[in-house]
Amino acid sequence: MDTPTSAALDDKAPSSEQTVATPPSKEKSNPSSPLEISTERFNSSVARLTTNSIDELHKLAFELQKMQEFLKSEVESVQRQIDSAVAGINIIVETIGP
Predict the structure, then answer these.
(1) Whether pLDDT at 51 is above 70
(2) Burial state string for 23-41 with b = 16 or more CB within 10 A and e = fewer than 16
(3) Taking Cα atoms as reference points, which of 22, 1, 20 lies closest to residue 12?
(4) Residue 97: which residues within 8 A CB-CB, separation 6 or more?
(5) pTM (2 d.p.)
(6) Which comes out higher in pLDDT, residue 10 or 39?
(7) pLDDT at 72 (0 to 100)
(8) What distances in angstroms separate CA 84 from CA 22, 23, 77, one per listed residue?
(9) pLDDT in tens, 53-75
């Protein structure tokens, strides 16, 4: 008789453990709400910062393109001046040579 009673208690023990296991999961639901809110705030902040960073990177890329165009025009100008100076030197050399 003790064995069936022990078995009955053993059967009841897992069900009470399952019942005990259910409230902690409910307790986990309550803290997850603030966690979800914190996660949403974090994601929102990251999205805002990312958007700001992307906008700043676009501005920087635009400025770099403008600088590249300026430097390219300066290089072309210097190249023209060098070509002109070389042409002048060639004229002088041809004049002095004979």
Answers:
(1) yes
(2) eeeeeeeeeeeeeeeeeee
(3) 20
(4) none
(5) 0.47
(6) 39
(7) 97
(8) 89, 89, 11
(9) 889 999 999 999 999 999 999 99
**Sequence letter at residue 86:** V
CA distance 75 to 81: 10
> At which residue do the structure tokens 């805002």 appear?
48
Burial of 3 (0-12, 13-18, 19+ CB in 10 A): exposed
How far is 71 from 28, CA to CA, in rounded Å?
Answer: 61
Helices (H), 1-96: 2-96
Instruction: Report the distance separating Cα 45 and Cα 37, nearest Å.
Output: 12
DSSP state of 97: -
Q: Position 27: which residue type?
A: E
